[in-house]
Each structure stands twice: as structure tokens, then as C-alpha cells.
Predict the structure.
Amino acid sequence: MSKLKYIIIVFCFLQLISIQLKADKFQVESFTKDEKDIAARKAELKDINDDYCAIIKVRTNVDGILFKTYPDITKIEYKTNPKEIWLYVSPGIKLITMSGTGFITQEYVIPNSIKVESLSVYVMVVNGVYDFTGVNTNDLGYFKVISNPPGAQISMEGNPAFKEYTPYDGLAKKQQWPIGKKRIFVELKDYNQKDTVFLIEKDKVNELNINLVPAYSYVDFKITPKNATIRFEDKNLYHGKNKIFKTNSELLISAPNCYDHKQTLDVPDGGDTQIVEIELIPITGTLSIIATNNNAIGADIFIDEILVGTVPLNNFTIQQGDHKLKVSKNGLVSYVQNIKIIGNQENSYPVLLDNVVSVKFASDPWGASIFVDDKFIGTTPLENKISLGAHNIRVEKTGYNRYVTKFEVTEATTVYECKLTPDALIAEKKNLVKNNIMRYSSIVLFGSAFLYSGYQGYTIYDNYQKYQVATDHATQLHQDIITSRNVLFVSGSVAVLSGVSYFIFQNKYKKSKSRIQSLSFIPTDQGIYFSMKINF
């Protein structure tokens, strides 16, 4: 009986060794001190001995690891960005115990070269070493993978030929696999890769439901002012929602005439939205408005159409940059000017208010005399200052009818224009003189041409008589007769044309004279009116 008992004990011991050799294990890849990390100094957490804790940041691909130290771990935090497990431990520990479902409990001895000290940070990298040995490779099973979102690629460790996409159903595809543990990797663009170890069992379908975690998050920027530039990782971002992959970097927000804003922006993965709301601090100066005459005192002051006070204004805080200044008071012309405020100093502007505006006077034709309230101010084109209110305007030019009107001058008035009409009497007198000149010119031209034609006729006759009795000069006389004949023809033609012109301008003269047949002047209280009868 004692021999049988011994045999059973030995058999159980060998089985335990065999199981441990084939079980999954933890493997510590590295254990280092991070001299630059001040997370422990920020936390300042004390252990049960009232000593400041150190932090061991565990980075692992294994879920569900349990840790134990002596003295006990003071606090454990699970971080997601990056994925880490923070162990707040007592200074001086030398041993860390790790355990987990399906894994052999292991103890890790911290190297002698590293001393765990208070307020220091250490990084420990732990990976799982898996036993993929099947119980019986002749036994087969199936597995099924569903991912959210679908369309992810599936690959398998140790089997590079296996490439499938979710949803994957091995039973539907009639793909059997040897029973035992398998590790698969599920990856999709813009999502974190997910790897998992699972067990294929004989004649069963193992269904895996995998939720992929987005490798990005959204950042919704609500920035004031709206023209601010958002700069992050050497890129310009939009006001509103931006898709940003997991990162930790400096954010720079700038706008004209504002101080820059800088901060470290931590963007995790997971697809969530964080709101960044920032109002930039404007660069400001002070504004003073000084009255240069009594009219300006008490006038309203508007900056960019907003009422900010009255004249005088002292040390008014205003943002640096370009602004529109308007100072107004009833009965006076408003003072409007674009001003430039320089930050961190006083900006002063003198203001003069008056009741006159600059008006440009124009006429068609130009060169007309302008009278404002019976006072001559110049000839067009000209520019002159005119007081607000109603005025009598008179425009005169020789040869044109006088133009008289009332003109209301307001702040918005800039131009006065008028079109003059020709004086009909003067125009008719000009036509009378012109027609009379042409009439007498025609008479003179006709008389001259007629007399010259007679002279040429006599010359032809005389030469012809000589030609009949002469022989030596016959040729020359013949040429003179021909020349005189031509001149006679031309002079006769001129006489005829001038006679026709005479009758034409004689008729025009009579018509012009008949038009100016009735002209009278009528004195009235308002002045002298004239009446003229013109026939058309």
C-alpha cells in the first residue's frame, strides 16, 4: 500500500511539472528607471509606513494580470493613454509577484543594479508567453470572429497564409483547425490592432466578439475670436470638430492683436469627443479723445458702431488694431476716422466738430459762376465748405439760362451738380448775325465774279480780233483765248453759286429776324422778367 501511494505521488508530481511546462507564462522584457518622469512627485502618495511611494508603470499585452509586493501595493491605477498599469509601491521593494487566469504565478526579482526609491518612476514591460500545443492535433474544431465595426482583417500567429475579414465563420467556410490555443490579430484602418488568445475545442465553434477601439478621438475647438489660427503638430486645424489620432503634443492658438495661447493637448484613442474652449486674451492699449473746440464737448463717441462714452474720454481700454472712430452731436457734422490702436500704450486723438461740410460743385458746361445765398463762391468745378441746412443756389454762365434752386445740405452731402440750358435769344441773335454776314458775302462774291467774267469776256473778244489779222503771234493768242475761256467759265460758275447762296441766306436772315419780333421786359417784386416770342 505504501508503494502504491508513493507511485501515485510521483505520478501527480510529474503531471504538475508537465502542466507547468506547457502553461502560459509571463516574461519581463525590461525594468528601467525613468529619470525624467515626475509623475510620482506630482502624486506625493504615502504608503503604510508614511514613506513617499514610487510608481512602477507596467506596459503589457496581457489583460487581467494581478500584482503583489511586500509591503503591499498602496494603489493601482489603470491608464488608457498610453495603456499602462501604475503600481504605487513602497521604496526598497525587491520582489513583484504576477498571476493571471491561465498563467503560472511568477515572481520577478528586481535587478540589484536598480534601487526602488521614493518619488521615482520605473517602467516594467511584461509580455505573455503562450503554449499553443494542442492536446491532440488530430482533433479539429471551428472558430468564428465578429468585429465591431466589421470589415477588419484577421491574421493568425504562426500561419502567415491565413488572411480573412470579419465577419468570419469557419464552420460556414468549412475550415477546421487543430484544437488548442491560437492567437489572432484583428486590425482595421484608423483602429487599434487587437490580438487575443482563444481555445479551439473539438467539434465546437468558438465565437469571438471583438470591439475595436478607434485609434483617434475628436477635438471640438470653441475658440474666441473666430479668426484665430489653431496649430497642432505642424498642421492648421478647423474651428469645430477635428479628427485627431492618439497623440500628446503642443497646441498653439494665435490671432491678430491677441496674445498666443500654448498648452499641451492630450488626445487619447477611443473615438470620444473632448471640447477645448479657449478665449484668447486681447492685447490692449488705452484711448483718449480730446475736444479741440467747445462744440465737441459732450459729443457721443462710437468705436466700431458701439457707444463707449462722451467727449472728453480718458484712458479707455481698447484692443490693439484698426478701429472706426465716430464722434457725433446733434446739429454738427460727425467726425469719422479710421484709427490704429497700439497695444500697451496711450493713444490720443483730438476731435474738432463743426457745422460745415465740404461740397463739390459741378456744372454742364463747366465754368459757371456759383452763388450760395447770393454770395459768389467761385466757378465750376470747385469745392467749398457749406454749412448744414437749406441754401439758395444760383448758377450763371454767359449764353445759358440762369439756374436757381434750393439745396438742403446734410452730413451726407458731397456733390452739387446741375445742367445749364442755352439762352434761346442769344442763340437766335448769333444766327441772325451769321446769316446776314453770309448774305452780304454772297453779294460781294457774286459781284466780283460777274465783273471778272465781263473782263475775261472782253479779253477773249479782243484777242480773237487780233488773231484774225495776226500771223506771228497766232499760237500765243490762241492759248490766251483758251485760258480766258476757262477762267470765264469758273468765274461764271462762282457767280451762279454765290447768287444761289445769297437767296439761301437771305431767307435764313428773314426767318431769324422774324423770330426775334416780340421781346418785352416786365418789372415785378421779385425782379425783372422778360418775355420773348420765338417762331419755329
About this structure: The chain has six domains: 24-129, 140-211, 216-279, 285-344, 356-422, 425-518. The first strand starts at residue 25 and ends at 34. Confidence is low (pLDDT under 50) at residues 10-22, 519-525.
